Amino acid sequence: MTNEQPIEPDITPASDLPPVKTGPPLKLIVTIVLIACVGAAVLGFGVYFAFNTIKTSVGLVTSELPQAGSDRISNQIAFVGNDFNMWLVKPDGSNLHRLTTDGHAYRFPTWSPDGRWLAFLGRAEASHSVLYLSAFDQPKPTIIYDNPNGPPFYLYWSPNSRSLTFLTQEASGLAMR
Fold first, then answer.
1. Contacts of 149 (CB under 8 A, 6+ apart)
2. Which of 13, 56, 74, 111 is deepest in the core (most CB within 10 A)?
């Protein structure tokens, strides 16, 4: 027989142990997941509402554009200069000329696919945003949309260059014109 005594484990009271680092509390994780779900639902509802508003607010403003001359403004870069006028220049930097001279804070030039028309936004005399259209053979741009309660933005040409569509922000929401 041996004189061995049983070894008892050294049990340290819990108050003497260092704190155990764990992940974020379950309450925090649940809160984050809940916020993400609510945010996704709000975003989904907002997108649904915006598209339904656009769908129901489509107006009949878009009509066939007048015929431009046979000349094209092809191979030209349209840009807004420091003087807030619309300028045209060839890609190599030659043939720089000003399309407008009144400085109505022009912006967002958009070429038609056939290169005959240039649509852009600018300020009207009454200081609200309007939609301008210019052809190569026109000495001055023409205002084709002017509504102080629904400023135009995001211009989009039809593939055949015969129609110009854009969005407006109105009291009832977004509208496609």
1. 170, 171
2. 111
